[in-house]
Amino acid sequence: MIPSSIEESVIYPIANPRSIAFFGASNNFTAMGTGIMGSILSFGYKGTLYPIHPREETVQGIQAFKQVSDLDNTPDLAFIVLPTKIVCQTLEACGQKGIRHAIIVSAGFNEVGGDGKALQNKLTAIADKYGIRFLGPNCIGVVNSHLNLNATFLPYDASKGFIGMASQSGSFITQMFSYLARLGIGFSTGFSVGNEASVDIVDCMEYLGACPHTKVIALYIESIRRGRAFIEAARAIIPHKPIVAFYVGGSEEGGKAGLSHTGALAGPDPLYNGVFRQSGIIRARSIEEMFDFCYALGASPPAPGNRVIIQTHSGGPGAVAADACGRNGIKLPSLSPDTLDKLKPFVPHTGSVANPVDLTFTKNPLDFFQTIPGILLADENTDGLLVYFLASTGMIQVALKGMGVPEDQVEEQANTLITQQAHAMANLQKNSPKPIIGYSFLTRNDSMLIQALQDADMVILPSPERAARAMWALTEYKQLREKIHRAG
Amino acid sequence: MIPSSIEESVIYPIANPRSIAFFGASNNFTAMGTGIMGSILSFGYKGTLYPIHPREETVQGIQAFKQVSDLDNTPDLAFIVLPTKIVCQTLEACGQKGIRHAIIVSAGFNEVGGDGKALQNKLTAIADKYGIRFLGPNCIGVVNSHLNLNATFLPYDASKGFIGMASQSGSFITQMFSYLARLGIGFSTGFSVGNEASVDIVDCMEYLGACPHTKVIALYIESIRRGRAFIEAARAIIPHKPIVAFYVGGSEEGGKAGLSHTGALAGPDPLYNGVFRQSGIIRARSIEEMFDFCYALGASPPAPGNRVIIQTHSGGPGAVAADACGRNGIKLPSLSPDTLDKLKPFVPHTGSVANPVDLTFTKNPLDFFQTIPGILLADENTDGLLVYFLASTGMIQVALKGMGVPEDQVEEQANTLITQQAHAMANLQKNSPKPIIGYSFLTRNDSMLIQALQDADMVILPSPERAARAMWALTEYKQLREKIHRAG
């Protein structure tokens, strides 16, 4: 059930602990637990950490305790990165101490079969006895960027973002930090669910559905264990926020790989497509696409319909976007007579006012970011814009030098100009119910313009195909939401 | 016809001019011609530049000439970036001077219809009179990185690469410089063919087929004008080097956009698929995929068959690669008993020797780059490897610190270690007829390891799906080449 407020979620303390008993960190820097505790410290966690260590007085400069029973207080959360064979006794000790939430990173349970299965049964029996809910085992931890909590072994270098994620592979939490940073986006909260012995992907979805920092939910799925609960949770969330899933088990090869990864029993594509359709969830075709969709769905309004105008300075990237739109059910309407009239003063003789609108160049650069997209967005026959950007920082600086700006003022004036352009376009988006998706072969690392646009909350994707697919996701969400709304 | 040596190509002087008469550059830095001449100078062109300018004594510090007839010598090439209305008279003057090759960037010809068509006819009549072959009009120039010639308006920041390209959109030459640089690859020679009034995409293919720096050919196509010649040229090239095409006109929307971009008359997908199949050309689904395929085809041997082993440290990225292989006709065989025996000492109890081979971790990091992939490549049931990399520079440095390496030696030791790993793997590839394709969510900008691997000529792509698709292209090329060989 979706909690009415996030604090009521049964897993709230797992993502928002005020204090953590940490098992498995030491002063040996090759140990995984040490690395995770290091991540927690370096990201600036504001709560209290209690390292539990049988011999050390301090761990990474923090007072350590021989055993959890030595603590004066009862921590909100136990974080366990210990050898498999002592995990059960540790959870037992935590239960006796009154701890009711845990994250168990240790592996060697259901996923290895045989004795591992018995061990996992023992673990859940202990949890049941004490009423403990835990993430894992065989997971990689949790990140809650808005709380400065990064309980994983990789440094969090993305922004405090709006993508809430629950993943049946920890890699798609931690190994996406740098990836998301390169798009200027980030996680709100990310859960690595591991073997789902206690907390599963449905619990995490429900939490993320109520999370105020989460605008869109990403799911990496190898197998859904509670089908009915999954569908019900999704249908309760979709009217408020979109969900995007990447499902890996649909092909024979993907299904087998999932089985040996987390012991997941996958189902064929048609079965899962049915589940996603019934749930109102958008299925992505790749990991990249999952995050592209999340980016667009979190930052842009859903598209009112499937008619799009493409605005470009370059014919080829315009044509490729048009082709990609065509292949994804997006229509390119002709411009209305009124739009053509208003556009006339801004289009040079080399330009084209077919759709794509290929301006080739604009005399006043700001027109490309404000007046022209403003005119196009207002066209009654369009539901959204795709806009191509090509200006690198170097090109803008060269242009300014050419216009006679003194060498020592070029950088500052380029900054001012770019910021002005980015804000003009972001304002258009803020005041329009129609989405604007930008695309460029440049990235925020090559181009101050791309960086400025992304930092002003514009969606800029790295290719025409990916932009067209993201626009498709915005049309799809509108329809899925309405379908669920009609079904009541 | 494919020239037997590149010097015999009819367009050789267009990509290899010893001297250039440049029309349209000045000391006004907002002019496009000025920008292009600036690119030529800053990339270090070794030939002679003769700026032709009616008033200036020098252009960008180089002695200028009032008219081309004033030159003592006859340049190999005329480069023309002038207002439309004076292009014909300029080409006439070049013809009179004895110049036999030209690049015409100026637009306003066939692509604008009406008078533009008449003007283009006039242009070709002048060229025919003097026996001039020219690239354009309405093109963006040429780049020949191995000659340090960048006659386009964007700076060339990619490597001196092996991708030869002919493009019906200049954007996919110039705007890909930074894009290719981010993958550590680059163009050998890139032609923007524009309206193809004289030199067309077939001429460029033939040149690239003979070019010793070009290992693979990329084509961006909105329309093929000489169908039979195109197929014949491709079939002559495929036995020696692969060709990858992105065709944009196959959807209704893409076809319309191409028409307004360069006046191209596109054909439906099935027609073009037939042409590509007959030609032995691999069709890519996106611009990114075209360059991914070129990267893999240029740097790796073609795959002997479609059976692949996936080597990983992380379950999720392994499972996703397995799924992507399954969706692209790539089989994941079980490891042979012999391989399992040899692998045993290197796999911890948390690992899996199913395929994907998920090592989870390796005690000696070098094993992951040398011994283990060596064992897997030697398996008689596999035709290639997909390998996942996750180590960022930061992680390696942390690990070294943990192992007690003094702070001031960490960076140097990390470099040494990474270089050793990259070279070990590159050596495996050099001595094997089976391809190794790497993938990672990190890029050469985030990770010294990715950079070192790419710089050692290993193929590392940014996602499991893209790596699996590239592996598919390697199996496809093998088959296409054999089919053409059998047909004689």
List keywords for this structure.
homodimer; 488 residues; alpha/beta; Rossmann fold; 2 domains; 7-stranded mixed sheet; 5-stranded parallel sheet; 19 helices; 19 strands
Textual characterization of the structure:
The structure is a homodimer of 488-residue chains. Chain A is an alpha/beta fold and 488 residues long. Chain A has 2 domains: 292 residues, 3-Layer(aba) Sandwich (Rossmann fold); 177 residues, Succinyl-CoA synthetase domains (Rossmann fold, 3-Layer(aba) Sandwich). Chain A contains 19 helices and 19 strands. In chain A, strands 9-8-11-10-12-13-14 form a 7-stranded mixed sheet, with helices on both faces. In chain A, β5, α3 and β6 form a beta-alpha-beta unit. In chain A, α7 packs parallel to α8, α16 crosses α17 and α17 packs parallel to α18. The radius of gyration of chain A is 25 Å and the shape is globular. The first copy, chain A, starts with 11 loop residues before the first helix and ends with a helix. The mean pLDDT of chain A is 93. The interface between A and B is large, with 83 and 84 residues.
Helix tally of chain A equals 19
The pair of chains with the biggest contact is: A-B, 83 and 84 residues
CATH architecture of the largest domain in chain A: 3-Layer(aba) Sandwich
Let me know the number of strands of chain A. Answer: 19
**CATH H-level homologous superfamily name of the largest domain in chain A:** Succinyl-CoA synthetase domains
CATH class of the largest domain in chain A: Alpha Beta
Q: List unreliable stretches of 5+ residues of chain A.
A: none
Strand content of chain A: 15-25%
User: Quick check: average pLDDT of chain A?
Assistant: 93
The tally of domains of chain A stands at: 2
The largest sheet of chain A has its strands arranged as: 9-8-11-10-12-13-14
Structural class of chain A: alpha/beta
Shape descriptor of chain A: globular
**What does the radius of gyration of chain A come to?**
25 Å
